[in-house]
Amino acid sequence: MREDSKWLLLVFTLPTSKASERVQMWRKLQRFGSIPFRNAGSLLPNTPENQERFEWLAAAIRASKGQASILQVQDIDDVSSGALQDQFRKARGTDYTALIKDLQKLKPSAKGPSAQVLRLRRRFEEIVAIDFFTSPLRRKAEEALAQVEQIGVKPNLTERGSASKTKYQKRTWITRPRPGIDRVSSAWLISRFIDIKPKFIFAASPATHPNAIPFDMFQGVGFGHEGDQCTFETLCIAFDVSDKRVLFIAQAIHDADLEDRKFGRHEGHAMNQILRGWAAQNILDDELLRRGMDLIEGFYNSIPQPKENLT
């Protein structure tokens, strides 16, 4: 496969007598997240997974007496890559909108770990799997899903030292996939100042791992945003982390995550841009977290001990 080919285009024909096979192909193309490209065929981003999907479809089409070709496309002269990405986002936006409407229709009795909610959770995960360019509605759908799951009550962690480190040693910590600046820095803080040997895992819902400690999740459990504080700040307060360089980082993370310019720090924004760049390269969550934690560690070691009192 040519590494410089950005897109895959599946072009196929089926005999007119194969109406049911044509419907099946259309449904599979929908499930794979492809978009129609004019009347030429179906388009997907060029990844090994999508290449395999198109190859299986092409084989099935040929087995049905049809013809199929898979084209690797670098550029299209009158449509930019950004415009194509927007078409994918628009398609997934339609999926998320329909999901949100179904979530809003749920009766109060259906909330929690019900069969309906679990079905909608699976549907959300299926959409995410083909949300190749991150629709802006993904976060809204995730928040709507978290509201109906209602798996627990969030403890009040605003008091300094309200959490005991002895209860949080060698634990598994769970957060959402595709970690950004608040989750990356929180994982670094946990590893550096709270848990001597933490394990980090990723899931959209803490219910999938009930023994893990959630942080920065939408479901309102574990350690997360408290008032106008980001998760990193909540952890600092709950575990009474008073290292002045950590508190300096907390200000930078707050400004990058909440974007309210409360402290006037710009360092977190730059680190967040780096994380987004890595995420755009389809780096796996574990590697993205590791790189982000290394980034925060480097930032920590670059800061001289502040003379001013940051508490």
Structural account:
The protein is α/β, with parallel strands linked by helices. Helix content is 48%, strand content 10%. The chain has ten helices and seven strands. The chain has helices spanning 19-31, 48-63, 81-105, 115-129, 138-149, 181-194, 231-238, 244-258, 267-280, 285-302, and strands at residues 7-13, 35-37, 41-45, 67-73, 172-175, 199-202, 213-214. It has a four-stranded antiparallel β-sheet with strand order 2-3-1-4, with helices on both faces. Helix 3 (81-105) runs antiparallel to helix 4 (115-129), helix 6 (181-194) packs antiparallel against helix 8 (244-258) and helix 9 runs antiparallel to helix 10.
Helix/strand layout:
Elements: E1 7-13, H1 19-31, E2 35-37, E3 41-45, H2 48-63, E4 67-73, H3 81-105, H4 115-129, H5 138-149, E5 172-175, H6 181-194, E6 199-202, E7 213-214, H7 231-238, H8 244-258, H9 267-280, H10 285-302
Parallel strand pairs: 5-6, 5-7
Antiparallel strand pairs: 1-3, 1-4, 2-3
Salient structural properties:
311 residues; alpha/beta; 4-stranded antiparallel beta sheet; 3-stranded parallel beta sheet
Whole-angstrom Rg:
23 Å
| Helical residues, percent | 40-55%
Give the integer mean of the pLDDT values.
Answer: 88
Structural class label: alpha/beta
